[in-house]
Amino acid sequence: PSDETLLEVNNIEVIYNHVILVLKGVSLSVPKGGITALLGGNGAGKTTTLKAISNLLKSERGEVTKGTIHYRGERVQDLLTSDLVKKGVVQVMEGRHCFEHLTVEENLLTGAYTRGVSRGEIDADLNMVYDYFPRLKERRKSQAGYTSGGEQQMVAIGRALMSRPETILLDEPSMGLAPQLVEQIFGIVKSLNEQQGYTFLLAEQNTNVALRFAHYGYILESGRVVMDGPAKDLRENPDVKEFYLGMS
Ligand code: ATP
């Protein structure tokens, strides 16, 4: 990761339905070229943090009531999600959300929709996605609804890549996947980061895997960051080992 900070979340509070305080002052920063992990158990506030960044809370009756969110120094919290995509920030939602009736390739192409680029450039991007996810090339004519959970996760990441992002917010990539597939998906994320320079902020309950692949981690508990540090320090931390890595 470089010294340049892309995303800066400063002391944000999020309230659902005007009364339920879910984030109680969360701050984090995401350096360019890094893989930053947002860790914590079920309900800690990981998804809420990602949705606050990409301005997806409104449909859930949630709002950021305090604090600021900046991307490349610019305040972004009042931008439409689609404008944020144009600035290079794209979110891969938890649960993958493929268009089930479209083919794998059609799903990927929907990711390029907001861009005013030529078919040639889109084809080049498709080939890049297929290089990283050879499985998707094999399955490109299959209806997405009939592909496996792992393949759908690949489609969701591939679709995000088609918007030519700089930063990818990845929500719970391991969810519902067998351990071997989780390794595979994280391995691809790491290659995308190292070879193509994509910046990742990923929310993950699977602390063990996330801390092996990330550079830096933040641990959330009940809407607060309780610990943060370089991934290798967190892996060695006795509290993290006891409470999150299932060993002491
Ligand atoms: P998960 O792994 O389950 O997604 P998480 O760390 O991502 O966990 P969030 O989904 O951000 O956690 O949820 C944080 C808290 O906010 C939980 O207590 C949850 O019940 C609550 N919450 C989430 N969405 C809403 C909503 N639309 N309305 C009210 N409360 C909500």
UniProtKB/TrEMBL annotation:
Residues 7-247 form the ABC transporter domain. One of its GO terms (biological process) is L-amino acid transport. The keyword ATP-binding applies. Keywords: Amino-acid transport, ATP-binding, Nucleotide-binding, Transport. Pfam families: ABC_tran. SMART domains: AAA (SM00382). InterPro entries: AAA+_ATPase (IPR003593), ABC_transporter-like_ATP-bd (IPR003439), BCAA_Transport_ATP-bd_LivF (IPR052156), P-loop_NTPase (IPR027417). GO terms for molecular function: ATP binding; ATP hydrolysis activity; branched-chain amino acid transmembrane transporter activity. It comes from the Bacteria. Gene3D superfamilies: P-loop containing nucleotide triphosphate hydrolases (3.40.50.300). PANTHER family: ABC TRANSPORTER SUBSTRATE-BINDING PROTEIN, HIGH-AFFINITY BRANCHED-CHAIN AMINO ACID TRANSPORT ATP-BINDING PROTEIN LIVF. Belongs to the ABC transporter superfamily. This is Amino acid/amide ABC transporter ATP-binding protein 2, HAAT family. It comes from Roseovarius tolerans. The gene is livF_6.
